[in-house]
Amino acid sequence: MAMSNKAKSRWADDEEDAALDVQRKHEKEAKKKAKAERQRKLEEEEARRAALVTIHTEDTVDGPNPDTERPAKRRRLSPEPDASGLELQPTKLLRFPAPEWGPCRHFDNFEKLNHIEEGSYGWVSRAKEITTGEIVALKKLKMDNANDGFPVTGLREIQTLMASRHPNIVALREIVMGDKLS
Q: Fewer CB within 10 Å, N- or C-terminus of the chain?
């Protein structure tokens, strides 16, 4: 038995599909034509407005009429220099008192009163500043691996204390240093 008649696939195109494709193509072409027509009309309208604006600006000496023309999108906020040639003086920046950069003070500027507590990263002590008599807290960082340089945990703690502003957290005033690591 020879198979002269092949079985038809479910997805094969038939006359209905071909008719739908033709209809879609016609609709697509109609949309393209309508869009091109709208664009042509917009361009004609813009050209007509531009011609009216040039005619209007040639006729008026005082400038644009606010009733017929829209203002520019951006307005200049800074004053323009006078036509007399005088330039505006540059404005001066305000200066506020701020702590100056300088070397760290020495640990000897403080008198150690008593030991408070030992933490993971150092020892905290109560001390009195010799010059002012103010009571402060001093934290001596643990320098276990002195060969590695300054400990990263110490830098993180200093950064956190400098950024924190809370009544229950002691404010970091300054960083002092000593002569030896022990």
A: N
Q: How big is the CA angle at 162 (ends 157 and 166), to the nearest 5 degrees?
A: 100
According to DSSP H, which parts of the chain are helical? 15-59, 152-163
Reference 120, options 137, 138, 136, 142; nearest CA is 142
pLDDT tens readout for residues 76-87? 666 665 555 556
Q: pTM of the predicted model, to two decimals?
A: 0.42
DSSP code, position 78: S
Q: How far is CA 72 from the centre of its chain?
A: 28
Are the beta carbons of 56 and 69 closer than 8 angstroms? yes
